[in-house]
Design brief:
The structure holds two protein chains of two kinds. By secondary structure, chain A is mainly alpha-helical. Chain A is built from nine helices and two strands. Chain A has helices at about 5-10, 10-20, 25-45, 50-65, 75-100, 130-140, 145-155, 160-165, 170-190, and strands at about 100-105, 110-115. Chain B is mainly alpha-helical. Chain B is built from nine helices and no strands. The chains are: A mainly alpha, B mainly alpha.
Amino acid sequence: MTEKNLNDLSDEELIAEFREYGTPAAFEILVQRYKNPLINFVFRFLGDYESCVDVVQETFVKVFRYKDSYSSVAKFSTWIYTIAGNLARTEYRRRKKRRFFSINSYGENNETFDIPDETYRPDTATDSGIKDELIQKALLKVSPAYREAVILRDIQGMTYEEIAEILGITVGTVKSRINRGRARLQDLLKDIYKE
Amino acid sequence: MGLKDDESIHGDLINDLNNMRKVEAPGNFENGLFRRINSNINAGEKPAVYWNPFRIVTAGALVAAAAVIFLLMEPKSPSGDDPLLAQPRVREDVVAERTPSAKKLDEMINNEMQKKSSRREPESSGRSVHSAAIAGLNDAIPDDANIRYGFPTLTHSMIKSGLNFRQVNLTSAERNEVRLLKKKMGLRFQNSLK
């Protein structure tokens, strides 16, 4: 199968191609499709670019290694987001435990955030905007469970059903978490959203 | 409250979240990823860190070693010596020396004695029976006992058999010194009787 044809395949067909025939190009196309959405998702969750690249690379390593365990019943995007979310949560817990290279934030509940290393962030090349930074800092103060749901819904643009499947919870719980997360964010950003 | 209501309440926030900058992967992302995959393939399946049998064996060995050390070093062990109950060690190497001032005093007393004795030379030949007895008794007292305990030379003679004390072998110089001291004390005693 040529690369042009591979590009026309769906995610599920590509992983099947890679699993059945070990076609490296199929895996490479999946990497191309998902690297940026996953980087965005994990970065918004962790707030640290270097760690987020590490987590996403590890996600693809797991996809490569455990390709046989992928069930065609689920969507590929759900499967890969589940892996990335699990790894991101593990990384978040590890960082919180060690408080590695972190400082105590000015926020409540003794939450911490990492000093952003601007030299490693490609997004700083563009005009980032103060509001984005404020929202990112506020996101890191929201509890991880609510944060993850809000990121998947409002930043990644997923449906409630997809989020429920990724997080392994009911749709009702997803909605509840999203509402609470948004309310918390609104409260933290009350200077911006005065209404 | 409906979902629509909630989304309209947080409308601005949702809009801003949706329009946040999209963070992208670095240019060398694939290089790093494939290097990682290759090293993973070469390394093969790694055993879970927490169930590594080598770790368990090492930890067990350390615990066993600690237990053995504790048993050997146990303070109430009957084989061990209690430093509070042990007899003090006798320092054989420690030698008492007289201070220079004491030596000077000895010399002065000695000179004084010699002067007095030279003045009483004629009398000495006709010494009283009492003083002769004292002198005789003086000679009977063992030197080392007198010097050690600071007894006056005219005391009861001591029987040393069965006593638990340290015996010191005096040098000839020390013996002379003791003899001189005994003499002085004897003379003093005689003077005090007069």
